[in-house]
Each structure stands twice: as structure tokens, then as C-alpha cells.
Amino acid sequence: MNQAKQQAESKSIPTVKLLINGEFVDSTSTEWRDIVNPATQQVLARVPFATNDEVNRIVASAKAAFHTWRKTPIGARARIFLKYQQLIRENMKELAALLTAEQGKTLPDAEGDIFRGLEVVEHAANIGNLQMGELANNVASGVDTYTLQQGLGVCAGITPFNFPAMIPLWMFPMAIACGNTFVLKPSEQDPMVTMRLVELALEAGIPPGVLNVVHGGEAVVNALCDHPDIKAISFVGSTKVGTHVYHRATLAGKRVQCMMGAKNHAIVLPDANKEQTLNSIAGAAFGAAGQRCMALSAIVLVGEANNWIPELVEKARSLKINGGTEVNTDIGPLISCAARERVEGFIASGIESGAKLELDGRNPDVPGYKDGNFVGSTIFSGVKPGMKIYDQEIFGPVLCIVSAATLDEAIEFINDNPNGNGTAIFTQSGAAARRFEEEIDVGQIGINVPIPVPVPLFSFSGSRASKLGDLGPYGKQVILFYTQTKTITARWFEDGAVTGGVNTTISLK
């Protein structure tokens, strides 16, 4: 292809904008990345890696907007999010199609991605009941003490590729509802659906400067961590990047919450409902092509449940691999060619380390999508710690099977893993389930529920190596994260009244 033709084609590809002070702005950056449909390799758009000057302009816009937004009545903030949830519902099909095109997950799963974010938007619309302080009347003679929950200022969010709708919607609605302004940095791999959600947020009434968007890679992440006008950062992504963000941003004096990598386990007891359990395992392990931080990537079969492996393999083998827009597709493509190569490398390492390959998902035949980044359901049995497929997060449709003789042995095995994002048990025994929830050292627990992500009334509570920071996203914890508690102790006197003389003690009398 000659240079002139390449330039012409490049100009015909849409570009993703920055959002600065309520306006969508073309970046002046010289560094750009293609957004590629992972099922076809079609270039959908190009996204800029913002310049340092653009980062500063964006943060300055958010800082200026905070001075008026923080004084906006709480009811006015809530009504914006009531309107916003309506707009998301009305545009659900369009949003899902956009998400599938750039991320690859099936259309039903894309709608699920958006819906779980929509639940948080609905929660943000209830901010009037969430952002309330406390009051104690007459704590001493004529003295009242009460608290205020006020916005911090400019907050920032860094989001991953695997949930380009849900996770941005975890972040900016709650932060903004609490009275903050926000700078969002979506994944550079699939920012298009995020930008459409941002457009709808502006349509719902979010004022200029209250929500801003910057694009980029490591340099932009570092700029957000270092910027003195950013007060808090929320991050979801890999352990490597999350650890970097946490340490760099906390050293800069910021509040930080980082939801990171995982190795999620489920224990299967032989008394479990077999068909329901196998369906749950297959869906949680292979849905979204395994690209979920809450994916079920390891199961511990206890006792006679080890005899279920052939049936699990057949269940996994029956899942349909195809482009995400095709009807009845169960598994779409991985996000990129590099991701596919990485997952295939893990599968090869599992064979080399001595695990038994029960089902090989490499090189599936997907008619009409010969260039897609597809890996099908893959299952290993005989997996042990020390194997790369167990020790690392694969982020692909690969399930590791471990064997245990007893429930106690299975619990000990899971507790020895450093991660603590989510875990589950499948059983019909209330006593076993209670023992599991008491003894397991993992933040989020499912009982006959394979992916125990809570609804927004509760906080996402991953733990140990899966989380840095004390407070999780959404729920009650995120209100504390996005607000500063002020405690006021007040005494009022009648005109001319004098109570006692000079008091040189610390007590209130």
C-alpha cells in the first residue's frame, strides 16, 4: 500500500476525543493507538495518548468546577443521576453493540456489563440517604457534636479493558454524587463505549468540568498519580499496575483504592446439586472468555466430586465459540492478539509442568472469523501450586482443577493462595457452608453462587493481594472514600449569658 493511500485511510478512521470542561476536544498528541475489533481485526477508531499539557488542562477544569459543584444541592445532584439511568436504559442496545465491537464479549454479556454499572448509577441517585452525617445532642452542657460528609475535590479513576461500561460507572457517578469533580482515564484498548456513556452523562445534566476524560498509557497514569490537585484515585486492573499506582499516589498524599488481580476458587462438595453446580462452574470459568477479575479460575473438588470431571469437560466442550454479535454465542474473542498468545503460552506451560490437559481450547475453528483472537474452553486437572497456570492470573478461558480429600483441606488450600478477591462453595449442607464462610480468608464469598459480586447496597470487598486501600468501590465504603468527614462540636449561648469562669482543663463542662 502506498503512503498516500495509507494517509487517506488513516484520515477516514474516527478519532476518540478528550473531554475538557464539557467539550469534546481533539488531542494534539503525536502518539495514537488503534482500537481494534478483536473478532475481525478491523480498526474501529484511534485513541490519543494525551500530552502533559492536556492532562494539566483537564485537571484545572475539574478543579475550577469543584468550587461551584460542591455547593450544588444534594437533590439537584440526585436528579441528574435519575435522568442518567433513564438515558442508559433507553440506549442499552446501542451501548451493548459498541461494547461488543471493541471488546469482544457477547451482546448479552455486554448488556450485563452495562446493567451492573447501571445499578450503581441508580444507587448514586439515592445520594440524599447515603451522604448523611451523625448528630449527638447535648454531649456536654449545651454542647452538640455532629459530622458533615463533604466532597474532597478532584478525584480520578483508571479503568481496565474488561468492563469498559461497568467499572467507569462504578467510579464517576458515586464520586460526582458526593460533590467531587472527576477525571476518568478509560482503557486505551476499548474507550468507545465509555465515551458514549460520558456523552449521556452530559446529556443528563452533569455541568462542564465536573466530569472530564483523558486518554493514555503509563505517562498519563503517572501524571494523575503525581498531580497535586488530584485528591483521590480509584483503580481497577492488574496487580502490577495497581501496586505501582497505589505506592506512587499514596506517596503523593492521595487517597487510593486499587482493586487488582485474583485467583478465584470454588470448593465443590459431593452433596452439591450436580447439574446446577456444573452449569455455574462452566459459566463463571469461561464466560467473557475468562476476562473477569472475578472469573472462577480454580475449583477444588472434594472426595467423590472428583468423579464429575468428565461431565464438566462435556459441559465446557458444548459452549459455542463465535463473534460476540452472533446469536447463541457463549465465548467471544480475547481482547487482543497479544492476549491470545499469552493465554496459549499458559496452556503450553501447564502441559510442560505435568498437569493433565482435559480439554484444549487452542486454535478453534470459528467460521467467518479466521482473524479473531479466539481461545475456547480449556481445562486442566492435577494442578498444584508451583505450576504457572495456578500461581498466575491467566485472564483467559482456562480452568484449573485441584483435588482435596476434605472440606478442611480445601479451605486450607485456598487460604494459602495470596489472593482474596472472591471464592465460593457448592453444597447442600448449611453446616459446611457456615464453616466455610467462617474459616475462609477471602473478602467476597458465594454460597452456591459462583461470582459473588455484591449489589451496590454492599461494598465490593476483595482482600489480601487482590486489594490495596481500606475502602472498596460502591456501597457504604465508597461514600467514606469520596468524602471528608468533618466533626463539629458547637455550643451556643443566650445573649449576655456567661457560664462559669476560665476553664484550663480539656473537658467540656
Would you kindly provide a written description of the structure presented here, covering whatever features stand out?
This protein is of the alpha/beta class and 509 residues long. The chain folds into two domains: 18-260 and 475-488, Aldehyde Dehydrogenase, Chain A, domain 1, CATH 3.40.605; 265-447, 3-Layer(aba) Sandwich (Aldehyde Dehydrogenase, Chain A, domain 2). The chain has helices spanning 3-12, 52-69, 74-90, 92-103, 107-124, 127-130, 166-177, 192-204, 218-226, 239-251, 274-286, 309-317, 337-352, 388-391, 407-415, 430-439, 475-481, and strands at 18-20, 23-25, 32-36, 43-48, 135-140, 143-151, 154-158, 181-185, 211-213, 230-236, 255-259, 264-268, 296-302, 356-359, 378-381, 398-404, 419-420, 423-426, 445-447, 463-464, 467-468, 483-491. The strands form six sheets. It has a seven-stranded mixed sheet, sandwiched between helices. Helix 3 crosses helix 8, helix 4 packs antiparallel against helix 8 and helix 9 (218-226) packs parallel to helix 10. The protein is globular. The model has no long low-confidence stretch (mean pLDDT 96).
CATH third-tier fold name of the largest domain: Aldehyde Dehydrogenase, Chain A, domain 1
* Major pleated sheet: 7 strands, mixed
Number of DSSP strands? 22
State the name of the first-level CATH class of the largest domain. Answer: Alpha Beta
Number of helices: 17
Classify the beta-strand content into a percent band.
15-25%
Mean pLDDT: 96
Distance between the termini: 86 Å
What is the C-alpha radius of gyration, as a whole number of Å? 25 Å
CATH superfamily of the largest domain: Aldehyde Dehydrogenase, Chain A, domain 1
User: Class by helix and strand content?
Assistant: alpha/beta
Number of domains: 2
Tell me roughly what share of residues is in helical segments. 25-40%
CATH architecture of the largest domain: 3-Layer(aba) Sandwich
